[in-house]
């Protein structure tokens, strides 16, 4: 069982309306958002932040943002967010070869040098202690402008919040997310862990 049970999707009408955003990104409203409804101001603020962070205002594609989210979540070990990020990357048109080889992004030729720089940034920024350094900065600025780097940092920070929320809450993982995670991450050891509703 999770630390706090999610509420009904109909609990807060304003959250429900805002959460339609997730029907596009994931195909369902996440249990994390349904849990946040215990304090509707949090669920609404979170959804609006999510929408702002994931808006495309430069060359950072929706698929790359979700791959950044996956690398960030992998660094912190949140199985729930790993599954959500890979599902959203799939739904937003990440190349099949990238989805199949996300674990090897640094060495696989399915990833451009610009994408590798972005994903290295995500990994360094998500570690504790943080490992963003002059080399990461130099490589980022070869490929991306300031606004695009801010978009990436927004994704990394959003998932820092989500990683802590979902791993601490032991949020039950939804079937659709499990399906995507098993498809792309199962061969390299992804499991539900505490997010299966019975191990927490």
Automatic annotation (TrEMBL):
* InterPro entries found in the cross-reference section: AhpD-like (IPR029032), CMD-like (IPR003779)
Ranges for domain Carboxymuconolactone decarboxylase-like: 40-122
Q: Which SUPFAM superfamilies match?
A: AhpD-like (SSF69118)
Pfam families for this protein: CMD (PF02627)
* Annotated protein name in UniProt: Carboxymuconolactone decarboxylase family protein
């Amino acid at each position: 069982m999770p630390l706090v049970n999610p509420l009904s999707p109909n609990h807060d009408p304003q959250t429900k309306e805002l959460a339609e955003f997730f029907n596009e990104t994931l195909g369902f409203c996440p249990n994390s958002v349904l849990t946040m409804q215990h304090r509707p101001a949090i669920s609404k603020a979170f959804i609006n932040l999510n929408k702002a962070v994931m808006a495309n205002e430069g060359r950072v594609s929706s698929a790359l943002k979700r791959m950044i989210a996956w690398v960030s979540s992998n660094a912190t070990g949140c199985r729930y967010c790993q599954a959500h990020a890979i599902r959203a990357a799939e739904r937003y048109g990440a190349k099949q070869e990238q989805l199949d080889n996300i674990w090897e992004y640094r060495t696989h030729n399915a990833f451009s040098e610009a994408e590798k720089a972005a994903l290295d940034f995500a990994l360094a920024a998500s570690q504790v202690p943080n490992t963003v350094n002059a080399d990461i900065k130099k490589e980022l600025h070869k490929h991306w402008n300031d606004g695009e780097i801010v978009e990436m940092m927004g994704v990394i920070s959003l998932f820092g919040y989500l990683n802590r929320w979902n791993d601490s809450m032991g949020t039950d993982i939804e079937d659709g997310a499990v399906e995507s995670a098993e498809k792309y991450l199962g061969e390299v050891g992804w499991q539900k862990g505490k997010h299966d509703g019975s191990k927490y």
